[in-house]
């Protein structure tokens, strides 16, 4: 398997190079040269595998054996998911019957930082380590070792998951920038309480965008990038998408088991109960993994993109126009909502889906597209992405939107609805379930999706509610409908012990002052922090 850029200027990369580079030099994202198609008789053989064995089967198709031998890949996978606190890794739970009894949540938050990003970043961290150990294997003791400096910016969840994925790893240093005072208390504690000598939190006076721009500027400085071997962990990294495809297969089979439906090599997929997925989306990485799963052969009925009020994806699905939200002159472009991990202006991974749609693929691959169509698609994508940059948007022709509609639906959800949904599921009399605000966006969309297409519906649950008490506690305590108890719910009741214990732990963080948010000072200071710190390595 080789990898190519969506924008057409680089191709033929190995898995290792695609993962280590992250972003392609032409600004595009890496995609596999083809998507392996697995016949259902073969997929059916996966139905009784445990999570890690299933992961091995799926990942093997995208990583050549001569790049990572079978046993090594198995070891990397086992190690990555040994840090999860549930034997199913991603358990599936039935939601209380509030509107109907076909809704399920796929809990993706059983990793070390209680967010779905752990599923991918635990794996990515171990991959980085594996590649480095191999590069350094034949080096003499006094020879300089190959290393990676991972540099990223976070508005909350990514930073923690990246730090937990990379802490303590040999020859890897991690610098995570966050905007000072603008990430939640819990998220800040989660990152800064990691004291491993290879982890450096940098709190920057300014906004998340300032942090992001600083990171981009350092990555585009070729000399700096080479000197420190900068590595990226953001959600455009192919390994992250790949790791996330696994739980679509896994949860599909888990649900069939719960429904007592047996699957074997002779099963015709069209005779099985229909199952659709709803995904709380931001950068489009999570749901894109679902698209790859379907293209591989997973017989999912529909994929539904749930957005909050930052709804560029929802608007695209309505109109075919992909446009940054137009807001008033004094309003910030990104609206701050109760589901901050989904507060985005544009969704970077959408570029990958659009490439397939332009090429002629929808739910299934085009039967007529040729290599020339691949190149044409890349040229179109490069042009649209340029338009997005210069004029804030682009419009896809009708047939592209139609192809999207062969598989995808979308709904947007307001903060008010998010809050109401958390309250309603908590105060359900038959059984109570605590939703985090991101999952609540998904569940609110899932209710609409189920009304439109009444089949079994799996909503991906992307964070533990204990990570977002500022949204969850008021939603429960100030619920306007009938309550199950009058007593006020407190943080300790909804949070796992590991999160409660975080607050008050010793912290390690480097403060960067920017004279009130000046970008050029931020860049200069962060560069200096990295240079000074790396002298010791
Ligand atoms: C990152 C994140 C999302 C959005 O996922 P994408 O892959 O960016 O679409 C949703 N919910 C939570 C809690 C997240 O951390």
Structure description:
The chain is α/β, with parallel strands linked by helices and about 525 residues long. It has a domain at about 95-110 and about 240-495: 3-Layer(aba) Sandwich (Rossmann fold). Helix content is about 45%, strand content about 10%. The chain contains 21 helices and 15 strands. The protein has helices at about 15-20, 40-45, 50-60, 70-80, 115-135, 155-165, 185-190, 210-220, 220-230, 240-260, 285-295, 310-320, 350-360, 370-390, 400-405, 415-425, 435-450, 470-475, 490-495, 495-500, 520-535; strands spanning about 5, 30, 90-95, 105, 150-155, 170-180, 200-205, 230, 275-280, 305, 320-325, 395, 410, 455-460, 510. The strands form 4 sheets. The chain has a 6-stranded mixed β-sheet, sandwiched between helices. A 5-stranded parallel β-sheet has the order 8-5-6-7-15, with helices on both faces. The longest helix has 21 residues, at about 240-260. Bound molecules: pyridoxal-5'-phosphate (PLP).
Summarize the structure.
43% of the residues lie in helices and 12% in strands. The chain has 537 residues and is α/β, with parallel strands linked by helices. The protein has a domain at 93-109 and 239-496: 3-Layer(aba) Sandwich (Rossmann fold), CATH 3.40.50.1100.
């Amino acid at each position: 398997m080789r990898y190519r850029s969506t924008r057409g200027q680089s191709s033929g990369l190995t898995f290792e190079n695609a993962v280590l580079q992250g972003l392609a030099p032409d600004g595009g994202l890496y995609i596999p040269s083809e998507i392996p198609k697995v016949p259902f008789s073969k997929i059916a053989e996966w139905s009784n595998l445990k999570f890690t064995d299933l992961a091995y089967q799926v990942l093997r198709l995208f990583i050549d054996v001569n790049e990572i031998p079978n046993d090594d890949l198995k070891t990397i996978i086992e190690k990555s998911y040994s840090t999860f606190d549930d034997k199913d890794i991603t358990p599936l739970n039935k939601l209380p019957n509030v509107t109907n009894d076909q809704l399920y949540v796929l809990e993706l938050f059983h990793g070390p930082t209680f967010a779905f990003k752990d599923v991918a970043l635990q794996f990515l961290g171990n991959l980085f380590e594996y590649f480095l150990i191999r590069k350094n294997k034949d080096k003499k003791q006094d020879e300089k070792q190959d290393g990676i400096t991972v540099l990223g910016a976070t508005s909350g969840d990514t930073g923690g998951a990246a730090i937990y994925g990379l802490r303590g790893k040999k020859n890897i240093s991690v610098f995570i920038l966050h905007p000072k005072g603008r990430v939640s208390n819990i998220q800040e504690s989660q990152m800064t309480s990691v004291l491993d000598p290879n982890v450096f939190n940098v709190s920057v006076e300014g906004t998340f965008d300032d942090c992001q721009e600083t990171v981009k500027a350092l990555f585009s400085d070729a000399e700096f990038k080479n000197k420190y071997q900068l590595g990226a962990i953001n959600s455009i990294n192919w390994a992250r998408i790949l790791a996330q495809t696994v739980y679509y297969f896994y949860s599909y089979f888990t649900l069939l088991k719960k429904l007592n439906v047996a699957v074997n090599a002779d099963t015709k997929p069209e005779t099985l109960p229909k199952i659709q997925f709803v995904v709380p989306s931001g950068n489009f990485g999570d749901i894109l993994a679902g698209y790859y799963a379907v293209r591989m052969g997973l017989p999912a009925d529909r994929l539904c993109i749930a957005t909050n009020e930052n709804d560029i994806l929802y608007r695209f699905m309505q109109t075919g126009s992909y446009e940054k939200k137009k807001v008033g002159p004094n309003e910030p472009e990104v609206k701050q909502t109760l589901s901050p991990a989904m507060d985005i202006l544009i969704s970077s991974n959408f570029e990958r889906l659009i490439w397939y749609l332009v090429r002629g693929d929808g739910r299934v691959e085009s039967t007529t597209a040729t290599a020339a169509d691949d190149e044409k698609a890349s040229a179109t994508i490069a042009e649209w992405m340029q338009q997005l940059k210069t004029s804030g948007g682009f419009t896809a022709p009708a047939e592209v939107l139609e192809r999207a509609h062969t598989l995808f639906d979308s709904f947007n959800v307001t903060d008010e609805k998010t809050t109401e949904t958390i309250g309603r599921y908590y105060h359900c009399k038959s059984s109570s379930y605590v939703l985090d605000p991101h999952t609540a966006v998904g569940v609110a969309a899932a209710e609409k999706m189920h009304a439109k297409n009444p089949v079994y519906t799996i909503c991906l649950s992307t964070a533990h509610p204990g990570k977002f008490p500022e949204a969850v506690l008021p939603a429960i305590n100030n619920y306007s409908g009938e309550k199950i108890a009058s007593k006020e719910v407190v943080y300790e009741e909804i949070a796992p012990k590991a999160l409660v214990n975080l607050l008050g732990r010793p912290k390690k963080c480097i403060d960067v002052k920017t004279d009130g948010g000046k970008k050029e000072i931020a860049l200069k200071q962060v560069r200096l922090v990295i240079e000074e710190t790396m002298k010791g390595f």
